[in-house]
Structure formats: structure tokens, C-alpha cells
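INPUT
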Amino acid sequence: MVEQSEEIGISVRNLYKIFGPNPEAYIDAVKGGMSKTELNDKHNHVLGLKDINIDMPGGGIQVVMGLSGSGKSTLIRHINRLIDPTIGEVIVGDDDVVKMNENELREFRRHKTAMVFQKFALLPHRTVLENAVYGLEIQGLPREEQEKQARRWITRVGLDGFEDNFPNQLSGGMQQRVGLARALTNDAPILLMDEAFSALDPLIRMDMQTVLLDLQKEIRKTVVFITHDLDEALRLGDRIAILRDGEVVQQGTKQEIVLHPADEYISSFVREVNRGRVISVDMVVKPLSGEPQGMAVKSGTVLEVAAKKMTDSNTSMAHVTDASGKPVGALDIHDVISAMVTPVDHEDAAA
Amino acid sequence: MDWLIEFPAMDTDRLTALKKTIDLGFRNFTRANGDMFETALYPVQWFMYRVEQLLTSSPWPLVILAFAVIAWLASRSPKITFGVIITLLLIGYFDMWEDTMKTIAMTVVATILAIIVGIPIGILMGRSNKIQAVLNPILDVMQTMPSFVYLIPVVMLLGIGRVPGLIAVMVYAIPPIIRLTNLGIRLVDKDVLEAADAFGSSNWQRLKNVQMPLALPTIMAGVNQTIMMALAMVVVASMIGVQGLGLPVLKAISNQYFTLGIFNGLAIVGIAIIFDRTSQAYGKRLQKHLEVVHG
Ligand SMILES: Nc1ncnc2c1ncn2[C@@H]1O[C@H](COP(=O)(O)OP(=O)(O)OP(=O)(O)O)[C@@H](O)[C@H]1O
Ligand SMILES: [Mg+2]
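OUTPUT
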């Protein structure tokens, strides 16, 4: 296996996508503020994406969220240029994917990206094993090496013993895991996952999320992860972007999204969140006054964990320490608990 | 009011002149190029000859065994395999062995040629809407043109005999394989193609790994139709000197030998059924992976 030390950032800039026979003709109108509905009703073109600007740092997990039809799949397909933008740039590492010629694009797809598809898109005439090796086969690796890698990932996604089954002999969730094994076998620095876990039952889903997070600890890939599910987004995402009708309505870290939802649309998502698991003590820490009191809680600990520790040891005060163990602030159990239970509306957040 | 009853056709002299010019043009073309075509077709002739030799001069039990094995491998069905053996035994018993072998040889070679020529054309057609737009009407014409008409240019170009017959049969039988290859390629699931692209498949890799295997069941349906059309045409081609089961039928028509006609006709039906069932069963087996077992 090639050691993957490279972390490749992705930067989407001023990206517009209009579907239809003559998209260029409407780009100025859309830039001038024509709405998706108007473009569709009057001109029969579909506004897929509008003025997308997202910077995805290398080695992190960027989650893209949004309701059905908001343009998530369209966006992720621009990163490996399965869809050509109407205008805009997709900078991956140092190269603009949009400007690549056919050969460069093919090499880029082979070696830099791997993708998991919302609808699985497995090769129906190939067995699980033959599906999993596909990316490496295309690259022309020796068969033995292909199978060694593939078997490892097939085991890791829990499909041991199904190597020789055809996709249609598997359940939906199992097929999705084949798609996952196929992408992971490819071992590319960029992993594009379009609702990669949506067909899995909750237990396996948790397990696969753990696989992804573990993988991130070993080899830091740049992951673009699409999901409908806010809990999943919050568990996985280093950064989250929320799409609506082809536009980014908010992006930022998960704490920013949960604490300061930009509008009613997002607060309606965020309201149901288990805030104790998302918000860290840093959000409710108060300046130290005098000697640090009580137990030490590491910076970055989520509220739920902090509350459990403090109640277990029966203290109402604690202090937050930074990475080197130096006390940086004081923590009051009342603040911790009230931050966990107060629902945030975007009006409150603004106030 | 004569012109209402009788169609105001082109006047006879001009029409004759027109036909003459075209005929003369084609005749000159054949004079100039006939030899070249014959030389070019030499490998085909050789191949045809070898296949026919193999079938007619091998011991008949061996031939039956070979057919039975092929039928078994293709269909994995004891019923079809037995059907093949019984049919061939009956054909032999009614003294039509040699003619049947010649017909089978011609059908097989014509089908192989049609596949070799037709599949690449079908692939090109499947990848380009322009090529499809050009070829579709041509295929329409080919499929509705009466089969006898195919014989005329072939005879003019190559004369009478086995090879001209073979070419006529192949040309007549090629449209289904082209059409269904085209269709098969176009019906390949876009999502799967997209996945192949996402992993960086080259055009050849996507053809070889995705499009062809997924189109194969459809292509096999085309092969089946091509075989059937070739078999029908082999009989017609007996008019230009193709040997086999067609010749006795032709003789039976002109001499009103009812039984001779029926027997040879039934032998053709017999091998048609053999080819049809075997190739269809093979096509079905190719689709095995599409059967949903659960989920
Ligand atoms: N090829 C296309 N031609 C026309 N419109 C398209 C095309 N592809 C997507 N769209 C439109 O773009 C919009 C976004 O579609 P997209 O598939 O990206 O949504 P999504 O966010 O992935 O939804 P889901 O959660 O249901 O998968 C939709 O309105 C869709 O109709
Ligand atoms: Mg989608």
C-alpha cells in the first residue's frame, strides 16, 4: 500500500450549475438574482447550484447537508467532475478540476478520488470481491494486491463470507457496504460519500461511522460527506455546510451551526439535536477568578461528558485546561446544564 | 380523365434509360472490382470450406456428440440437449444428414461474420446519436427489403456459389445484431456507468467492463434473431447455388414433390428450434446475476 501522507484541500469557488439545453444564456440572469422557480417556470432550466463557495481543509471531514433536491449530489459530483459546472472553479490541491483535459481528469479520478454513491451503482455482473477491486483494477495493479486490499475492506465493513455473491443477492444495506468497500479499497486521498450510510440500520450505521472516524485517525483523508441526518453530520463533520435550493445557507463548525443557526430553516434542523453531545465546555467557560477550583476538564470536552464527570464527583465547580494542562477558565455546573437544555432559535442566537 | 385512372408515370423511354444507366454503372463497377472482392473474400471462403468439411466428413456420432456438448454447455438443460440429439438422429434417419450439415455450416459461418461485423457497428451506433440517425433508416430498409433482392447485386459482383450466397445471407441477417447491440449499450444503467467513470475508467475499460457485459443479454437476443434470419435466407440463397436443405426445397417446388419439400422443410424447422432454444437458454443464463434472491 502506498503511504498516504498528502492532505489535499478542496476549494469550490463561485460555482454555478444550471441544467438545461442552454445554461450559459441564463447565467447572468441568475447572478442578477433570478430565482430557481422563475428560471424553471419561465425558461425551463433547472438551477442546480448557485454561487457555491466552500473551503474544505485537507484531512478533514466536510459534511454537506440539506433537504431532498437541495443540490447535494450535484455539488459532490462537481468535485470529480462527473458534472461540469456552468461556471466556477473546483480547486483540488493546486489544480482546477474544471480545467483538466480528459487524460488529466482520468488520472485524477484514478489516484486522487474514490466515491460512494447514493444509489450504490455497483456492477451487477460482478461479485462483491470483483466490485471491490474495481478501482485498483482500473489502475492496473497486480491482481493479488487488488484482492488483498479488497478482502481487508470487505472484512472491515462486515461482509466476510459474501465475497462471491452478486450484488442482487444482498440486501440494500449490504450493497451499500459493498460500495463503501469499493471506495475504501481504492485508497485515495479524497473520499466522496453521497449519503453513504443512509441505507444502513442504526447499529451498522454507527459502526460504519466509527470505521470512518478510525480511518481518519490513521490516514487523514479529505472526506466530503453528504447526509440528511443532523446527528450523523454532527458526529462526523469537522465542518458543515447547509444547502437549500442550490445555495449555501450556512457553513461553519458544528458548534457554530448548533449555537448560531443562521435562519429558521436551520434552527428547525438544529432544534432536535442532543446539544450535550455537540457543544463543548469552551462555549460556556468563564474567565478564571483566583485559584482554579474543583476537578480539571480538558478543553474540547462536550457538555454531556463534563456534566457526568462533575456530578459523579459531586462538585459544582471545575476548571478547564488547555492541551498542556494549564487552567484556562472556570466551569459552573449550572451553566453546563442550562446550555444542554436550552433550545436555540436563530432569533435568540442573534440576540 | 385518363390521367386519373392511369398513373402519370415517367415516360417509358426515360425510365428505361435511367435503369440502364444505373445497371451499366453497377456492371462497370463489378467488372472493375469483382476480382478484388473475390480476393478479399478468400479467407472467408477458406473458413466456410473448412467448417463445411468438418461437419460433413467427420463421423456422424462424433458430430452429434459435439452438438450435444455445445447445447449442454450453453443451456445446462437436459431437455434441450436431448432435443438436439433426437432431432439430429431423425434428420440422419431420413437421409438429410449431408444437406443439413451444409446448411448448418452456412448458418454458423454467416452468423459469426454477422457478429464480427455487426457488434462493432452496433457499438459505434450506441455511442453516437449521429451514427444512429444515419444507420437507423438504412437498417429499416434492409429489414423490409424482400430477401430475393439481396441476391441480385451479390450475383452481379461475385457470381454464383457458396461465397456469394454466404455474403447475401450475412447481409440479410445482420440488422438485428446491429440494432440490439446498439439498444443494449444504450440501456446500460447510467448510474453504473457513472461509477465506472468516477473510478477513472478509460473508454475501452468502460466498454469492456461495463457496457459490453451489461449489454450482453440484449446482444444475445440479437444473435438469436440473426441466426433465425440467416437460416431463412440460407434456403432462399439456394437459388444462387448455395447447397444444403434449400436446394431440395427448390427442386420440390419446380417438380411438385410434396413429401420432399415437407421433409426438408421440417429439417429446417428442426435445426431452427435447436439453434433458437440453445441460444435463448444461453442468453437467459447470462442474466443469472440479475435475479434477485432477496432484499
Ligand atoms: N441532470 C439533471 N437535469 C436537470 N435537473 C437536474 C439534473 N440533476 C439534478 N437536477 C436537479 O437539481 C436539483 C438538485 O438535485 P440533487 O440530486 O443534487 O439533489 P440532492 O440534494 O442530492 O437530493 P436527494 O437528497 O434527494 O438526493 C433538483 O432540483 C434536481 O431536479
Ligand atoms: Mg442526492
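end of record. Chain B has a mean pLDDT of 91.
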